[in-house]
Amino acid sequence: MGKVRSDAWWAGLPEERLDQIAEWCVAPKTEESPGGLQHAREQLAADGVKVSLSAVVRFFSWWRLQSNFAGCENFARSVEEALKKTPGLSAEAISAAGQVAFTAAATARQDPEEFREMEYLRLAKETAATKARQKDQDLKLAERRVRVLEEKIARAKEELTKAASKGGISPDTLKEIEQALKLL
Fold it and tell me: What is the pTM assigned to this prediction?
């Protein structure tokens, strides 16, 4: 499931519990139970969780959106996996086909608001993945810069040690120190 707002009453509940609450939300009406969202509210109250009917509605809307998003995403991933077996397709083409599959699955649900929300979720996930890749690249570049600086420092120390071992600062020694400092 996707990220839950930290102030949501269901934040921190395990996925199994979320699924159970969602099942209560779609329970049929019976002589013993009002069914649906009211049934879920009553079940939660019996478990010691006091929430309003509108809070249950918000939960179920969130849960359904997350569930539908996961289904569309799984479909898109299965299309991408199948296309990876096709010779000659680039990673970009496979990714684009996955996006088309996701969009087609989301559109098939015929709920414009849900589609918009799923697109926002997909874009947020894609943006997070891009930021993570960029941070990895930045870290590798920084590590390379540190290695280069460490090598320059080691060479400078080596040059200074050679200069000091010659017994004083002569014009040649001074020149060697200046050259060593230029390495930094």
Answer: 0.54
- Is the CB of residue 119 less than 8 Å from the CB of residue 106? yes
CB atoms within 10 A of CB 114: 16
Backbone angles phi, psi at 116, to 5 degrees: -60, -45
Within 8 A by CB and 6+ apart from 73, the residues are: 102, 122
Closest by CA to 62, choosing from 122, 5, 110, 123, is 5
Q: Which amino acid belongs to residue 107?
A: T
Cα first-last separation, the chain? 51
Could you count the other beta carbons within 10 Å of the beta carbon of residue 85? 7
Q: Tell me how many helices (H) and strands (E) the chain has.
A: 6, 0
pLDDT tens, N- to C-terminus, the chain (184 residues): 556 677 788 888 888 999 999 999 998 888 887 888 999 999 999 999 999 999 999 999 888 888 888 888 888 889 999 999 988 889 888 888 888 888 888 778 777 777 777 777 778 878 888 898 899 999 999 999 999 888 888 887 777 677 666 666 666 766 777 777 776 5
CA angle 72–73–79, rounded 5-degree value: 90
Which amino acid type is present at position 98?
G
